[in-house]
Design a protein that fits this description.
two-stranded antiparallel ribbon; mainly alpha
Length: 746
């Protein structure tokens, strides 16, 4: 039993470990990266893999099928090459000794024929015109081995007179010798025989000429100019190689829907393209696509991890990045399907990435997206002629878009970025086309389509940006401008229900913006974050001193625990309101972190004074429950919030005193560990001090005293300063030299 319990505990621990891993941020982010990359890969595979059809010879094409790459019509090309080779004139060479060989053959044939005649004269009743029995003709034919004679030819030979026979061979010998002094070309022996017969025909009877001379010449005449097989084969091979292949260019129709019937050569072309259902699946393109897509995306993510690690802070940023890649990949697939690769709006990726995520993610995603898009649009089964111009065009136009929108991200600049991308695309395509000596008309068309694709990207960006901003709740400049409007429901409530807090937030916004600009942080985010950092005070505005105008201080009748819980509770209440109104996460983070874990020193000191011996006052009970600032903007809001509230309580606002007081406040935050997790440096803190001092000097500058009762004016000024002095229940006394500044309760 103990062993079984131990095994069960191990199994339980294992499953708990697996569940913990599946719920971990690492696994969820890895899953987002994998699923996003897989989606891009699937789209890319669909783009580079042709559709398949079931077709046969003689079938009317049910679809119009275009060549996805340049492909050779092998059947038609082979027919053309065979015709070219057949049209080649053979190469001949002179063959020595043919004359003697022919004359010897002629003499041998003459001897055999003379023997046949002698046999005929030995037969009974021999005479010219005698008829011969089949047996006699068969015996006579057996005597001839060098020529072929039919029965009627044998009869003519056997009945010829001796003088006619001798005259025939005398004429043949002379005519053959004369003919062989010239050239008898192989394959033209019949022409030579006809010429010889014409020569001897004047002195030879017709029957003897046709029935004896012709078979004799056919048996003896051979050419002295024979075909040089080696040279002729070489010439034919050269003719075949010189024949241009019949080529279907990429984008050219192989068959047209409903037009004609499919021929054998067209079916073979389609088979070469791999679009027939009988074709086997070729895994090499799938492997190649996998390598290109995943290596590009992995390189992008590694670079982002190094150069822009904040992309990993929120899973929604990763989802958005891959959603943009999937969107642009789908658009590339569509434009490839309609045969307009240069019009693909790849510039949409850097446009949206710059506006929604930042310049660094835009540059890196544009590089990866351009590689994938160029591969999709410029590659189909092996033809990569368009990959280079497409890649260069996408990279340069994307860089132009990022440079423009990174400086000014207003929606009106999207059209400017689109025009810049269109210009860069046009010039790039024209330049590459001129270098490659491309046809001018086709080149101009591509350049114009590339420009059109950039403008399409600008229009799509205008359509998608607000949707994605809202869907992912992003703190984009346009969204922040909308949130900074006083007509926003939260700001309007703050103005009406907590006017002191609203006034404090406006002054704080000026301080935070100046400080953020001084250190290079997001000034707009800092300003808007300052507007909303205290919206939690809307829950109980009268618990905060700045809103107690004309009323008694509610903290005077409350115990310190209640006061602290109400003051620190405005952070939690603010987060609830921020989520209710879907404020961007960056602003929610500022609300949650703008007090960090600061000690509410006034009430802590009061609790210490009021405590008895049996009651222990825990410092942790008097601290804000929030996390210390993680971003520069949240840290700026924390410092400026403290500085603005504390400086207003100073009896003197001379620049020197203000700077010294701000220094003490910043040191206090550092000593309390509130800035330990922020990215601020000592140099940044000095710049923040100078920026805040400059702004506060403008706020608390000297004014000319208006005529009237000085005591009354002093009293009114004191009441106003008390109303705007944060959440202090009572106005603090002037600080002694060297003493640490108090931490405001607000």
């Amino acid at each position: 039993m103990p062993e079984e319990r131990t095994a069960g505990q191990r199994m339980t621990a294992f499953f708990q470990g697996v569940q913990g891993f599946l719920r971990s941020q690492f696994f969820l982010k890895a899953l987002i990266i994998f699923m996003g990359s897989l989606a891009v890969y699937v789209i890319c595979v669909l783009a580079v893999t042709p559709s398949r059809y079931k077709l046969t010879i003689g079938m009317v094409p049910p679809n119009t099928i275009v060549a996805t790459r340049d492909v050779v019509d092998e059947i038609t090309t082979e027919q053309n090459r065979a015709l070219a080779a057949a049209a080649v004139t053979p190469t001949y060479r002179y063959q020595e000794g043919i004359t003697d060989k022919v004359l010897d053959q002629l003499e041998a044939v003459q001897a055999e024929l003379e023997g046949v005649r002698q046999y005929a004269m030995t037969l009974p009743d021999y005479a010219p015109g005698r008829s011969y029995t089949p047996e006699e003709l068969e015996h006579a034919a057996g005597m001839i081995t060098l020529a072929t004679f039919h029965d009627f030819q044998l009869v003519t030979l056997m009945n010829a007179s001796q003088s006619a026979f001798d005259e025939l061979f005398s004429s043949l010998t002379q005519a053959v010798r004369n003919t062989l002094q010239g050239y008898i070309t192989q394959g033209q022996e019949t022409i030579a025989i006809t010429a010889i017969m014409q020569v001897i025909g004047y002195r030879t009877g017709v029957s003897l000429l046709q029935n004896v001379a012709l078979p004799v010449l056919q048996a003896t005449i051979i050419p002295n100019m024979v075909i040089d097989e080696v040279a002729t084969d070489a010439a034919r091979l050269a003719a075949r190689e010189a024949t241009e292949p019949v080529l279907y260019k990429q984008g050219q129709n192989v068959v047209v829907r409903g037009s004609g019937r499919i021929k054998a050569n067209e079916l073979e072309v389609l088979r070469s393209l791999g679009v027939l259902s009988e074709n086997k699946v070729d895994f090499l393109p799938l492997i190649g696509t996998f390598a290109v897509v995943f290596l590009s995306l992995i390189a992008m993510m590694v670079a982002l991890r190094i150069l822009w690690p904040r992309i990993y802070q929120r899973k929604s940023y990763l989802v958005l990045l891959y959603l943009l890649l999937i969107l642009v990949s789908a658009l590339c697939y569509f434009f490839k399907a309609i045969q307009l690769p240069y019009a693909a709006p790849i510039a949409l990726l850097p446009m949206l990435a710059t506006l929604l995520l930042g310049a660094v993610p835009a540059v890196l995603s544009n590089v990866a997206g351009s590689v994938i898009a160029a591969f999709m649009l410029g590659t189909a089964g092996g033809n990569n002629a368009e990959m280079f111009p497409l890649l260069v065009t996408f990279l340069l136009s994307g860089a132009a878009v990022t440079v423009i929108l990174a400086r000014r991200s207003l929606r009106s600049m999207i059209f400017v970025a689109g025009l810049a991308a269109a210009t860069v695309s046009f010039v790039t395509v024209m330049g590459i086309g001129m270098v490659t000596a491309m046809d001018h008309a086709a080149l101009l068309g591509r350049a114009l389509w590339a420009s059109g694709g950039a403008m399409i990207a600008a229009l799509l960006c205008l359509a998608f940006q607000p949707l994605l901003e809202t869907l992912f709740n992003l703190p984009t400049p346009n969204r922040l401008y909308d949130l900074s409007s006083p007509n926003h429901p939260l700001l309007r409530r703050l103005m009406l229900e907590a006017p002191g807090t609203y006034h404090h937030s406006v002054i704080l916004a000026n301080l935070a913006e100046a400080a953020a600009e001084a250190i290079g942080a997001d000034a707009l985010l800092a300003r808007v974050g300052a507007y909303y950092h205290d919206i939690g005070k809307l829950k109980q505005p009268l618990w905060f001193k700045e809103n107690q105008i004309g009323t008694a201080n509610i903290h005077d009748g409350a115990d310190t625990k209640t006061s602290v819980s109400m003051i620190t509770g405005h952070v939690t209440a603010g987060l609830a309101l921020a989520k209710q109104y879907r404020l961007p996460h960056a602003i929610q983070q500022i609300i949650a972190e703008h007090h960090g874990s600061t000690l509410v020193s006034y009430f802590y000191s009061k609790a210490l004074r009021e405590s008895t011996g049996d009651r222990v006052v825990m410092e942790a009970d008097y601290r804000y429950p929030g996390h210390t600032p993680q971003t520069a903007e949240a840290a700026i809001i924390m410092l400026c919030d403290t500085i603005e509230a504390a400086v207003r309580s100073m009896p003197s606002h001379s620049p020197h005193e203000v700077r010294r007081f701000i220094d003490d406040l910043i040191k206090g935050k550092m000593e309390d560990g509130q800035l330990s997790e922020s990215p601020l440096t000592l140099k940044d803190l000095n710049l923040i001090r100078e920026a805040c001092a400059t702004v506060l000097h403008g706020v608390f500058h000297e004014r000319v005293e208006y005529p009237g009762n000085p005591a009354r004016l002093t009293s009114l000024r004191g009441q106003l300063m008390g109303a705007l002095s944060g959440s202090y229940p009572a106005q603090p006394k002037p600080r002694e030299a060297g003493a640490k500044p108090p931490s405001p309760a607000s």
